[in-house]
Structures are given as C-alpha cells and as structure tokens.
Design brief:
By secondary structure, this protein is mainly beta. It has no helices and 17 strands. The protein has two domains: 2-152, Galactose-binding domain-like (Jelly Rolls, Sandwich); 161-226.
C-alpha cells in the first residue's frame, strides 16, 4: 500500500489522522469564486481528482482522509478506474470525526478488487450540499480532500501439488479469478536463490491450473508467484 500526499500527517509511517490544512490537501478552485479583488475566480463546475499509478495495480480498498472543513469536504463521489470504468458512487462523512485535532480515516471497500492504471474521484456533492456539475457560483462550490492510501490486493499463496506421470511431472494449484500465476523452479534453496520461470504466466479462472514439465534428473523446487 502507499499514501498519496502524506504531508499532512504528524507521523507519515503511522497516519492515524490527517491535519487537512490547505497546504497539505487538494482543493478545487471553485466555480465563480474570487478570493481577492482583482484575482480571477475559479471556473470548475465539475471537479475531479485522478491518481495515476506507475504501473497497473490491483486495488482492493482505499483509506480516505477528507478535507478538514465540513462544508468543503467531499460528501459523494463516483470512483472511476482508468477514467471510464465506474466502480460506483460512494458517500463520505461530512460531520467529520477528529482524532487529536485532525481528520480521522474512512475506508472505501471496493465491490471487488480492480486492476487499473488510475483511479479518478468525480465529485458529486460537497458538505455544503452543492451538487456537481455546479449551477451556482461562490465560496460554497469549493471542495477538497486531505489524502488517500491505496491497498493492493494480494491472493493467498497457493498450495502446490506435484504428480508424476511417466516421464513428466504435473504441477497444479488452485487459482483465483483476475490474478496472473507464474510457475518458477530452482535446483538450490541456499541463498542467494535464483528462480527461473517454467512456461508462460497463466490467468486465474477460479479453477485448478496445471503445468506439465519434463521429469528432471536433479532435485527441483517449485513455487508460484501470483500477481
């Protein structure tokens, strides 16, 4: 797992709560909102924020710290995977819970783990009751969030079964849908151990996966990596 924008945490390694100040949070520019005379106001009737990952990740849940002012906190948002795949609409607490003077964490449990290169929060409503796209102007159209933490789904380590069949060995293991499984082997478990791939990666389908390998004259140790 990793945290996006850990600047507002008193202890980033153990983020119980987020300070939520403007300097350490994301906030929209609002719609028709001018903070100071002579400075152009914001023009953002449909605010959203997107988090892009270095490579596709299988995300199972999201820890969420809202903006520290109830009116500008996110009340409802739609979460999109890869900008188009809707994971549903989610409602957040705007009567904010504070721990030691900062915003406590909420957990977004996704309906199912999703593999994606990005997650986008499309804001639907803020704590002031302004729905988006906004049809009004002014301070009440501002909305923001403090920080998010993404949890990567990992399947349990599969239990391998090896059966001799003539001059071959059949290696099998249970799979889960949506994961890739790579069978690997080595002849020596003494460190540093070098593992080599045995055949191509296989896509899990909820059934038993099998790989047939030629019998070897030396000892071989097998493992399966799931991702």
């Amino acid at each position: 797992m990793w945290t996006v924008n850990g600047g507002g945490f008193a202890d980033p390694t153990n983020p119980i709560c987020h300070g939520g100040g403007e300097e350490t949070s994301w906030e929209s520019v609002g719609n028709g909102w001018t903070e100071e005379v002579g400075i152009p106001g914001g023009d953002d009737p449909s605010p959203w924020i997107q988090f892009t990952f270095p490579q596709p990740q299988k995300i199972s849940s999201i820890a969420f710290w809202n903006f520290a002012e109830e009116g500008r906190a996110i009340y409802q948002a739609e979460i999109l995977a890869d900008a188009t795949n809707s994971l549903g609409n989610f409602t957040f607490a705007t009567n904010l819970v504070y721990v030691a003077g900062c915003v406590a964490m909420e957990t977004i449990q996704l309906p199912a783990p999703v593999t994606t290169s990005s997650l986008r929060f499309v804001i639907l409503e803020n704590g002031d009751g302004i729905t988006f796209p906004a049809t009004t102007n002014g301070f009440t159209t501002l909305v923001g969030l403090g920080a998010v933490r993404f949890s990567i789904a990992t399947p349990p380590a599969p239990l391998l079964s090896i059966t001799a069949a003539g001059f071959s060995n059949i290696v099998s293991w249970p799979s889960q849908t949506g994961y890739l499984y790579q069978l690997e082997s080595t002849t020596n478990l003494n460190p540093p151990t070098t593992w080599a791939s045995d055949g191509p990666a296989m896509t899990g389908n909820g059934a038993i996966l099998t790989a047939t390998l030629p019998a070897a004259s030396d000892n071989r140790f097998f493992r399966v990596r799931a991702q």
